[in-house]
Amino acid sequence: MAVTIKSDREIELMREAGKILAEVHLQLKEFIKPGISTYEINEKADKLIRSYGCIPSFLGYQGFPASVCVSVNEEVVHGIPSKDRILLEGDIVSIDAGLIYKDYHSDAARTWPVGEVSEDAKKIIEVTEQSFFEGIKLARSGNHLHEISAAIQEYVESHGLSVVRDLVGHGIGRQMHESPQIPNFKQRNRGIRLHPGMTLAIEPMVNFGRYDVSWLDDDWTVVSRDGSLSAHYENTILITEGEPEILSL
């Protein structure tokens, strides 16, 4: 499938979708505290998304049973919200959310501390977020896609952490997952050349220990195989004639 170049009208719709999703994440951040369940986070997210006249992208997507993914500690991504999973002081929680606004998708993820957390927890949250910003320094028209991938990996590994290899970012637009796939780690080739109008979901997933992951029996939840902490940071971006525009921030 070819990489779609968005029209000015499509970009405006995606800009609005991103703006709404950014607001949803800010409100979810304020909601997180010790003692709440991941189910409550999902309920809150669903209500917020719908309050803006949007549809949760994830609900029912390939059978996913919730409106957002809520992953705790060693869970990398795709954690299924549960009434039995209660957040504790010192946990970290990753919320991956997507919404559809007038047929266009936005996708973004954040990892937040729950109350007071360890220095290791603070480090992985900060490094994962900054690796996104290191990557998108290369997200400029005329550069190649995999320059972003290499920059993310180099930054993460310079801090002694590991980039997950089994999951990647993606193009986005009228579909949540469009071409191209976007690894967060070096590739042998340079990848496609970037052009204005491309919209991409860049999403580093970082483990404190090794990069190996496993899937739990629910066939959704991905965990670090060594049980180490994991963090996730994602935004939907637009390639422009100059600096990339972060649509979901």
Predict the CATH topology: Creatine Amidinohydrolase
CATH superfamily: Creatinase/methionine aminopeptidase superfamily
Count of separate DSSP helical elements: 4
Largest sheet: 5 strands, antiparallel
Total beta-strand segments: 15
User: Secondary-structure element order, as H and E?
Assistant: HHEEEEEHHEEEEEEEEEE
Shape: globular
What is the number of domains? 1
Mean pLDDT: 98
CATH class: Alpha Beta
Low-confidence stretches: none
Level of helix content? Answer: 25-40%
Radius of gyration: 17 Å
Structural class: alpha+beta
Protein model, in words:
This protein is an alpha+beta fold. It has a single domain, classed as Creatinase/methionine aminopeptidase superfamily (Creatine Amidinohydrolase, Alpha-Beta Complex). The chain is 28% helix and 25% strand. The protein has helices at 8-31, 38-51, 119-136, 145-158; strands at residues 55-56, 68-72, 75-77, 92-101, 104-113, 162-163, 169-171, 178-182, 199-202, 205-207, 213-215, 222-224, 230-232, 235-238, 245-246. The longest helix is centred in the N-terminal third of the chain and has 24 residues, at 8-31. The chain is globular. The two termini are 28 Å apart.
